[in-house]
Design a protein that fits this description.
The structure is a single chain. By secondary structure, the protein is mainly alpha-helical. It has one domain. Helices cover 78% and strands 0% of the residues.
C-alpha cells in the first residue's frame, strides 16, 4: 500500500509538470488576452490528452494485462493529475460574460468526451493490429493443449515488450514539453509539485468509495471541493511574491490534482444507461458552477 501511495505521488507530480509545460507552450505560441483565456485554452489541451489516454487505457486489453499498480499509476495518478476540472470551471466564470461562460463549458465538454471515445477506438485498433484476443474467445482442441501453452508462453514476452515500449515512447513524448519548464525552475511550479501529491492522494481515497454506490458521488465531491478551493483562493490578493507563488502552486498542484476530467469521462461512459451519462455530466457541471461562484467576487473587484 505504501508503494502504491508513493507511486501515485510521483505520477501526480509527473502529470502536473506535463500540464504546466503544455500550458506554457500554448501561452508562448498563441497570444491570449485575459486571465480566463490564459487558463482555459491551455487546460483544454491537457484535459483532451488526459481523456484520450484514459479512454485508451480503459479499453486496451494489452494495457489491461499490465500489473494493477501500473494501471493505477497511469489512470488515477498521471491522467487524473494531467486533467483538471477546477481551472476549467473557474476560468469559465472569469470571463464576465454569460455567453462566454456557456461557450467555454461547452468547448471543454466537446473536446473531453469525444476524445475519450477516440482513445477507446484507438485501443481497439491497436488490439486488432496485433491480433490480441481474450482467452475466453479462444477454443483449443485437446490434442493442441501443449502447443497452445507453449505459444502463450512465447506471446508473454512480446506482450510485455510492446506494453513497455508504448509507455516509454509516450513518456518521452510527454516529457519533451517539460524541457521548456526546467530552463527556469520557477518557485510557483515548485510549490505546485509539492501540493500535487496531496490532491491526488485525497482524490484516490475518496473515489475509491465509489464502488459502494451506483452513482460516482465521490468524483463529484472531489471536483466540488477542488473547484471551490480554487475559486476561494482567487479572492486572496496579497502583494507578496512568495505568498502569490504559494497560492498559485496550491491552485495548480492541489486543486488541479484533486479535480479531474479524465475520471469524470471514464465514470460517465461506464454507466449502463445513456440518460445516466448525461445526468452525471450535467450534475457535475452544475456542482462545478456552484463551486465557482466565489470567483465572481474577485471579478467584480
Amino acid at each position: 500500500m505504501i508503494l502504491i501511495l508513493a507511486g501515485l505521488g510521483v505520477a501526480s507530480i509527473f502529470g502536473t509538470i506535463v500540464r504546466i509545460a503544455l500550458a506554457e507552450m500554448i501561452r508562448k505560441s498563441i497570444p491570449l488576452s485575459g486571465e480566463a483565456f490564459e487558463i482555459f485554452f491551455p487546460d483544454v489541451l491537457s484535459n483532451s490528452l488526459g481523456c484520450l489516454l484514459m479512454g485508451f487505457c480503459k479499453k486496451s486489453t494489452i494495457f489491461g494485462r499490465s500489473p494493477s499498480w501500473l494501471q493505477i499509476f497511469v489512470t488515477a495518478g498521471f491522467c487524473g493529475s494531467l486533467t483538471t476540472f477546477s481551472a476549467w470551471m473557474v476560468a469559465s466564470f472569469q470571463t464576465r460574460n454569460s455567453l462566454f461562460t456557456f461557450a467555454m463549458v461547452a468547448i471543454g465538454l466537446a473536446f473531453s468526451l469525444p476524445l475519450y471515445i477516440v482513445g477507446a477506438h484507438a485501443a481497439d485498433g491497436v488490439d486488432f493490429l496485433f491480433n490480441r484476443k481474450d482467452s475466453s474467445d479462444i477454443e483449443i482442441d485437446a490434442h493442441k493443449d501443449s502447443d497452445a501453452l507453449v505459444g502463450s508462453q512465447k506471446r508473454a514476452f512480446p506482450d510485455r515488450f510492446l506494453l513497455w515500449t508504448m509507455l516509454s515512447v509516450l513518456c518521452l513524448l510527454l516529457l519533451l514539453p517539460a524541457v521548456f519548464i526546467f530552463k527556469r525552475m520557477w518557485t510557483r511550479q515548485s510549490f505546485a509539485c509539492i501540493f500535487a501529491p496531496f490532491g491526488c492522494l485525497l482524490r484516490y481515497f475518496l473515489t475509491s468509495k465509489n464502488i459502494k454506490w451506483q452513482f460516482p458521488w465521490f468524483t463529484v465531491l472531489c471536483n466540488f471541493i477542488g473547484t471551490i478551493s480554487f475559486a476561494l483562493s482567487t479572492l486572496f490578493r496579497i502583494p507578496d511574491p512568495m505568498v502569490e507563488d504559494v497560492i498559485i502552486g496550491f491552485k495548480t498542484g492541489f486543486c488541479g490534482c484533486l479535480t479531474t476530467v479524465s475520471s469524470l469521462t471514464s465514470d460517465a461512459f461506464s454507466m449502463k444507461r445513456t440518460i445516466s451519462t448525461y445526468g452525471y455530466v450535467g450534475f457535475s457541471v452544475l456542482a462545478g458552477s456552484v463551486a465557482s461562484l466565489p470567483v465572481l467576487f474577485s471579478v467584480s473587484q
